[in-house]
């Protein structure tokens, strides 16, 4: 990876494997300045089921972290390419061009907002899936090879994923360390959740760094009794991962048509308040780590 000294601007390349942890001290060979080399936290928003709020969560979590001054890269691994739509931008390139090395990272990424960059998804990702399939070995590391060198430039890498289970989903799980699972309380999706967790466990056999970090109930409608029951079950089974629920909020479904995040479209809405809560929860983890 390329690193730049914040003191004198001297650039050098260091071997990724020589950076032991998410945070390490680096010594500038030119001016002698010592500075922390902080690597991004990688959070994948995943669940095999569609329509549970994955893209809404990825976009608003990424935007919320960026508003808090964090440098965020949002990576869209879905062929539907909804993240760009939700942010109201039309990048000419994205994740495909980064993975195929057609473009350098700085040209593949699109600056969507202050502190927020996007590696957009879309139909061209189908070619990446074929590329992964054709590799004799190491196909599951394709995404990691593309994203790991970018980690020093960001505080967070948030990954939106497609419904279903395909070579790119496996790649996401071989790359990200933290998994955030949105669970819709509108439909009985607990079965989908336990199946997904089983698949995640099978990946964990090969890659122990990855694990469930957050379970985020979505579409909470306080007027309906049933969501309460699902929420209770979630609380019993997955208590340590459970986040406060995102309520059903019509503003969240309206915002994408205007190409705005919930904070831009309806900053005073319950949707904005709930996603702000999630941002705080994710950041609280950072502070704990810094204190330790
Ligand atoms: N909490 C919510 N309240 C109301 N509508 C929501 C909420 N979360 C998501 N939506 C809407 O539901 C639809 C599906 O959400 P989306 O994030 O695209 O799900 P996924 O990415 O899992 O398929 C979108 O139209 C989105 O705007
Ligand atoms: Mg989606």
UniProtKB/TrEMBL annotation:
Transmembrane segments: none annotated. It comes from the Bacteria. Coiled coil: none annotated. Residues 1-36 form the Zinc finger/thioredoxin putative domain. Residues 41-207 form the AAA domain. This is Chromosome partitioning protein ParA. It comes from Oceanidesulfovibrio marinus.
